[in-house]
Specification:
Strand content: 5-15%
Structural class: alpha/beta
CATH architecture of the largest domain: 3-Layer(aba) Sandwich
Radius of gyration: 24 Å
Largest sheet: 4 strands, parallel
Shape: elongated
CATH topology of the largest domain: Rossmann fold
CATH superfamily of the largest domain: Nitrogenase molybdenum iron protein domain
Strand order of the largest sheet: 4-3-7-8
Mean pLDDT: 91
CATH class of the largest domain: Alpha Beta
């Protein structure tokens, strides 16, 4: 009986310690945007973000201090500019990337070169792919990145703020009069988005009707003649920089366009509308405001 008592007492002491050890080394898992489960033995502490959008999302998830590598144009938040760059999203310096010893790589589904990503995976680095295609996807990406980085509380707050803000815009413009819109992604070649693209969803959110929404490609090339034939009521462009409106001035050469006649040539800073990050909420508010101006000018 004394021996049994000693064993029981030992279990009482050892069992909580074992549970504590298990908690410390608990595996963290999340499903990425290629529908793969990515698991880590412990929260990531050295993160490589291989697109500007991925960099923003990691910072939004509260894990900015854990980012050790970024790529070109990772300029937001400002602190990201101080992080080591390992090339561009289309061609990374793998030797430099590996020297930074990341324990998690955030990849871009359609933006990173598959052969380089495959090399990283063959070397044993966990790669978590992201590419939000809708508003909920942005919130979800933040929450999943926060889970992998161990920053769930902050990431959850940011994700919910974005979710709430987009819902408020949807409610506000649910009954708005439609505005035929052409959104210009690029000048040469002339490019736009269809309705399945995230920007296309912003157009719909604000009560716009994307005049090229039915095209099959997410980012189709079009002709200037096609824009003239569609005769949009508003043209919105991002330009090549945060203050560059040159693409809009070119349309003033076509005074027959409704958008020109009504002075509905609008600029939205590209970083606010072309990246799937929480700043899309700010960009959407600006976008919706521009379409409201177009309605007032009828």
């Amino acid at each position: 009986m004394p021996n049994l008592l000693v064993c029981l007492l030992s279990l009482i002491v050892v069992w909580p310690l074992a549970l504590g050890a298990a908690a410390v080394h608990a595996t963290v898992c999340a499903i990425d945007d290629k529908d793969r489960e990515v698991c880590l033995d412990e929260p990531a502490r050295r993160i490589a973000a291989l697109s500007p959008g991925a960099t923003e999302l990691v910072y939004a998830a509260g894990a900015g201090d854990q980012v050790v590598a970024v790529v070109s144009y990772s300029d937001y938040p400002p602190e990201a500019r101080q992080v080591t760059s390992v090339g561009s999203h289309t061609r990374m310096d793998l030797e430099r990337l590996l020297s930074l010893e990341p324990d998690l790589v955030i990849g871009w589904v359609t933006g990173n070169p598959p052969e380089q990503i495959a090399t990283l995976e063959e070397l044993g680095l966990p790669v978590f792919f992201i590419e939000p295609r809708d508003f909920e996807g942005v919130s979800s990406a933040i929450e999943r990145l926060a889970a992998l980085a161990g920053t769930g509380t902050e990431g959850g707050r940011v994700a919910e703020d974005f979710r709430r803000g987009m819902a408020e815009l949807a409610e506000r413009y649910a009954g708005a009069e439609p505005v035929p819109v052409f959104y210009q992604v690029w000048e040469e070649p002339l490019m736009t988005v269809n309705r399945e693209h995230l920007i296309g969803k912003v157009v719909s959110l604000c009560g716009g009707r994307n005049v090229f929404g039915d095209l099959p490609r997410l980012v189709p090339r079009i002709s200037r003649e096609a824009v003239l034939a569609a005769d949009p009521e508003a043209i919105i462009a991002g330009g090549m920089g945060e203050e560059n409106r040159e693409w809009l001035t070119a349309w003033q050469d076509f005074p027959g366009l409704r958008a020109v006649q009504r002075d509905n040539l609008f600029f939205v800073p590209p970083s606010l509308i072309q990246r799937p990050t929480p700043r899309l909420l700010e960009g959407s508010r600006i976008f919706c405001n521009k379409l409201e101006q177009a309605r007032e000018r009828r």
